[in-house]
Specification:
CATH architecture of the largest domain: Alpha-Beta Complex
CATH superfamily of the largest domain: 2-enoyl-CoA Hydratase, Chain A, domain 1
Strand content: 5-15%
Strand order of the largest sheet: 14-13-12-15-16-17-18-19
Number of strands: 19
Bound molecules: (2S,3S)-3-hydroxy-2-methylbutanoyl-COA
Largest sheet: 8 strands, mixed
CATH class of the largest domain: Alpha Beta
Distance between the termini: 38 Å
Number of domains: 3
Shape: globular
Structural class: alpha/beta
Helix content: 40-55%
Number of helices: 26
Length: 656
């Protein structure tokens, strides 16, 4: 804290005639009321003191400002309002420079835009993530950013919510410089350089004109991804307005839009998702358990799943040992992993040096004994009970006593796999989604005998991979596949009842799913599920309603997209409704004596959502899922449920 006290969260001190204002409002220096009023008090002070030549604003801790306080969104705003504070900064008679020490997000980024100069630490980042919360920037961001960096870069940032590193921010002219050594000293030097001169006020700048074609092209990219959400569309409209409207009118329009969106269902849903993600990592009785140190990760099986897991672990900085059954298999596994890294280089997500460095941390061998030094071994071999139990028994003999064994099984019982070992307490499930290096979701399966420390270590590991880790109890298919099975069943029942597959898909896509269920089936292939159904046929309840249509499709050799036909036909690769499938559906309905009745898109979605929420309730009552919001996150991140609808439990009013 500095010598000068402006509010509970804002303090200042004077060095070389510059007032250095520090915002200290843990955890992320959100611009809550005491920050806003503290900034106003600091401006009052600096205006009155002749000895003060200018102001530097910085943040305490690792964040500069994480934005407006999202927890305050439901409450009536209290003056001074953020846009007014920023307008005052912009119009201030002495130079105000932001010394950006960490993430400057939302209202934090907007504060920097209102300043006369911006200096950043190399670890700083800049973003306007409001669209991810279903809103638009509400403190001048949509009007100031295009004036500073131009239309295209502004639309890209505001329309997607993507953050930029300091170096990228410098590249587009968002900041003046990256601090060489001492951030605050550098920012103070900029104040000195500006003092007495004409100040560069962002609101007074004129955005560089660009052609209508360029405007349309940049806008089209945003609209293509909006999938029915209002916020990106409004963001685009506001940034366009900045090119034509006077600054004050643009600000007023931004404010109106911000307030309207803030109270929308879409914003409530996305706020729910934001807090759900923060809650997900927390397991009450485990808060005080310290995770084990993991450095070396073994991955047994380097096929599609294993190679993705290996790449994730390499990206997170781990030593990785892949194991295959033969020399030849090991060589292929190495090739697959290197191939995934190559792809990352081609798409610009990784540079050549990063690729080399990762490959130096990788070995792929054909000998399980290589895992004697591993801290964690993840098996990603064929999903067969005997194969997995055999492997775990072997591993038991090879690995250190404190090493953790994780299974990536999707459908087998991990408790039974654990029981096959001498130390079931060190067995845990890590259920990755394919492709594992891309998909964010990991279900961390807490088996009957998993030790707390093992569970916490697995959660911490998944988070270090950059994944969203959701704790889940043991059940067939875990959270995601249980809910998926429930709504898949409902969808197939609806096909019998009167809706055609493409009508269900259209209803889901209109709701916000990137793809309907039957299109997804065709993409994934129908034969694996068919084989499973045949295996389980004997166990099926003969009195339960069973829909045969998928079986009929498979019997007719319609295995989905790769065989050119499935629930749809694919002439020239394009998904089209197939009259043969419609005929097959009609035959099945007649055979069962069902009198079809057509279903509206609303009815379809109501039934699908109810099936999901009911299964979610069952998972909660069985203790498989800890909280309703975890189920929402699984469906959003693993199954394409639209985030802006909050997840099936939120949509049903179960998770507030
Ligand atoms: N408001 C309230 N709480 C917040 C918060 C915020 N903006 N940001 C984070 N938290 C809480 C979070 O719930 C957690 O709490 C703790 O801080 C640590 O978060 C007018 C309309 C800043 C990069 O969308 O991206 O500005 O669980 O675990 O990994 O236009 O938090 O410990 O109780 O994520 O170090 C726009 C959201 C707001 C930024 C830090 N801002 N935050 O990451 O910690 S809208 C955002 C983040 C706006 C203006 C408008 C990250 C972070 P708890 P964490 P982290």
């Amino acid at each position: 804290m500095g010598d000068l006290h402006f509010s509970d969260t804002v303090s200042g001190n004077i060095a070389d005639r510059v007032l250095v204002v520090t915002i200290d409002n843990p955890p992320v220096n959100a611009t809550s009321l005491s920050v806003r009023s503290g900034l106003m008090a600091a401006l009052d002070y600096a205006a009155a003191e002749d000895a003060v030549r200018g102001i530097v604003i910085t943040g305490a801790g690792k964040t500069f400002i994480g934005g407006a306080d999202i927890k305050e969104f439901g409450k009536p705003p209290e003056a001074p309002l953020l846009p007014d504070v920023y307008l005052r900064i912009e119009q201030f008679g002495k130079p105000v420079v932001a010394a950006v020490n960490g993430a400057a997000l939302g209202g934090g980024c907007e504060l920097t835009l209102a300043c006369h100069g911006r200096v950043a630490a190399s670890a700083a980042s800049f973003g306007l993530p409001e669209v991810k919360l279903g809103i638009v920037p509400g403190a001048g961001g949509t009007q100031r950013l295009p004036r500073l960096v131009g239309f295209v870069a502004a639309v890209e940032m505001i329309g997607t919510g993507r953050s930029l590193k300091a170096s990228e921010a410098l590249g587009i002219g968002l900041i003046d410089r990256i601090a060489a050594e001492a951030l605050v000293a550098d920012a103070s030097a900029l104040v000195d350089a500006m003092a007495g001169g004409e100040l560069r006020r962002t609101g007074a700048l004129v955005a560089k004109t660009i052609s209508d074609a360029d405007i349309d092209a940049a806008g089209a990219k945003i609209l293509a991804k909006a999938r029915g959400q209002a916020a990106p569309v409004e963001a685009l409209r506001l940034v366009k307005a900045a090119m034509t409207l006077p600054f004050a009118d643009g600000l007023a329009e931004e404010r109106r839009t911000f307030l309207r969106l803030r109270d929308s269902q879409e914003a409530a849903a996305l706020r729910h998702v934001f807090f759900a993600e923060r809650a997900a990592g927390k397991v009450e009785r485990l808060e005080k358990v310290t995770p084990r140190d993991i450095r070396c990760v073994g991955v047994v099986g380097t096929g599609l799943m294993g190679s993705g897991i290996a790449v994730s672990a390499l990206n997170a900085g781990y030593q990785v040992i892949g194991v295959e059954q033969s020399e030849e298999g090991a060589a292929k596994g190495h090739e697959r992993i290197a191939g995934l890294l190559d792809k990352a280089v081609q798409t610009g997500r990784l540079d050549a040096a990063g690729r080399e460095e990762r490959l130096r941390r990788l070995t792929v061998v054909s000998d399980l004994n290589a895992l004697r030094d591993a801290d964690l071994v993840i098996e990603a071999v064929f999903d067969d009970f005997d194969v997995k139990t055999d492997l775990f028994r072997h591993l038991d003999d090879v690995v250190r006593t404190d090493a953790i064994l994780a299974t990536n099984t999707s459908y087998l019982d991990p408790d039974a796999i654990a029981t096959a070992t001498c130390h079931p307490e060190r067995v845990v499930g890590l259920h990755f989604f394919s492709p594992a290096n891309i998909m964010r979701l990991v279900e961390v399966v807490n088996c009957a005998r998993t030790e707390s420390e093992v569970l916490v270590t697995a959660m911490t590991f998944a988070k270090r991979l950059g994944k969203l880790a959701i704790v889940c109890g043991v059940t067939e298919g875990f959270i995601g596949n249980r809910v998926f099975s429930a709504y898949r069943r409902e969808a197939e029942l609806m096909v019998e009842d009167g809706a055609l597959p493409h009508e269900i898909d259209q209803a889901m896509e209109a709701y916000g799913f990137p793809m309907g269920l039957f299109a997804v089936y065709d993409m994934a292939g129908l034969e694996i599920a068919w084989a499973r159904r045949k295996r389980q046929a004997a166990k099926r309840d003969p009195n339960a309603r069973y829909v045969d249509i998928a079986d009929r499709l498979c019997e007719a050799g319609r295995f989905g997209q790769k065989s050119g036909r499935g629930w749809y036909a694919y002439p020239d690769g394009k998904r089209t409704v197939d009259p043969d499938v419609t005929a097959l559906v009609v035959t099945e309905r007649t055979r069962k004596g069902i009198k079809p009745r057509s279903l509206t898109a609303d009815e379809i979605m109501t039934r699908l959502l109810r099936a999901m929420a009911d299964e979610g309730q069952t998972l909660l009552s069985e203790g498989i899922a800890i909280r309703a919001s975890d189920i929402d996150l699984v469906m959003i991140n693993g199954y394409g449920f639209p985030a802006h609808k909050g997840g099936p439990m939120f949509a049903a009013g179960i998770a507030a």
